[in-house]
Sequence to fold (115 residues):
Amino acid sequence: MTSRSKKRPTETRQAAIRRREQRERQQAYRDEMRDLRRPDRDDIARVWLWQSIRMAEKAEPKHRDWMQCTVLEALKAQGFDERQSEIALDELVERYRQSNKPPFRRKRHLNDVAD
Fold:
């Protein structure tokens, strides 16, 4: 038996302990954020995007076009397909355009927390 194979079970146990501790820390953090009713990055980004799209609808066409091009260029730089990005953005804008109320689901777990 090599020294590497002797170490492996210990390393695996240690890795399992680290993963378990990380899961516990993450769960405690999520519980605290829920108790505080603090939005996370994605919650803020969804609302920001929705408001930005609504504002762009009222803007001059050149500003709206600039915003769309900027978003599409950033998606392309990340490696996304240019045409598929345009389709996805158009679909999202259309969905947001069709409703005056926010197109988000209510965070029901926040209803359980007293104001």
Summary: Residues 3-36 form the longest helix (34 residues). Helices lie at 3-36, 41-58, 61-77, 82-97, 108-111. The CA atoms of residues 1 and 114 lie 60 Å apart. The radius of gyration is 23 Å.
